[in-house]
Amino acid sequence: MPGARRRASEMGAGHAHKLYRHGHSPVHALPAHCKIAAVFGFVLVVVSTPREAVWAFGLYALLIAAAAGAARVPAGFLLKRLLIEVPFVAFAVLMPFVAEGPRVAVLGMSLSESGLWGAWNILAKGTLGVAASVLLASTTELRELLLGLQRLRMPPLLVQIASFMIRYGDVITDEMRRMRIARLSRGFEARGVRHWGVLAKSAGALFIRSYERGERVHLAMVSRGYTGTMPVVDAGAATRTQWTRAAALPLAALAVCLLGWTL
């Protein structure tokens, strides 16, 4: 059994994602399913908080900062990866201009009051949710995330789809890199519309190669006894102490949320 675990770990080692930051903090040591449940609970509490309780979102941000400090994740690392929400920020910025309802003057501009509250609601809750998700990804490897979802009784088929998607994403990306190098070695460089035909043929070849590889992998899995379910290599349960540590974030957020509704 230890040998099987070691081999599984080696197989998953090649699929470390860019969001993950290797470390040995107390947050890194928590089981993945505990962290997933904690982040899910935290996001639910944040979403349930009334938008008028502006101070509550400041406290949520402090909780995320404390969790990042415990995980030893630098602020720059976290902030850089928050750029993924830029499209939502752009949408929120437009809301005060296009929403209907009573208008208020802000810096000489006539803005919708309901639009301002809506923009604040999206920005505050969206940013906190993304920050919590980035922190989860920064402290948990992809393989552990998938195993955590499996331990939380997520439908096995969805877990397998996610696992194959991650692995084939790496395979297809590597295949695209090799095809690009092959084009460059032959002096090809896309400079205009007249080169789109070559790129289209490359995309078609990539699709065919990926499809054929998928068929070969499926046949290999079936020949080794695959019946639609993947074996759980490491099914270790979390201790009560680990669950308590993971629950600290959502429980603290819940206390803030209750104050936000009562004050």
UniProtKB/TrEMBL annotation:
The record's annotation in Pfam families points to: CbiQ
Query: Where along the sequence do coiled-coil regions lie?
Result: none
**Membrane-spanning segments:** 27-47, 53-70, 82-99, 119-137
Question: Quick one: where is this thing mainly located?
Answer: membrane
- InterPro entries membership: ABC/ECF_trnsptr_transmembrane, ECF_CbiQ, ECF_transporter_component
Q: Which NCBIfam families match?
A: ECF_T_CbiQ
- Return the protein name: Putative ABC transporter permease protein
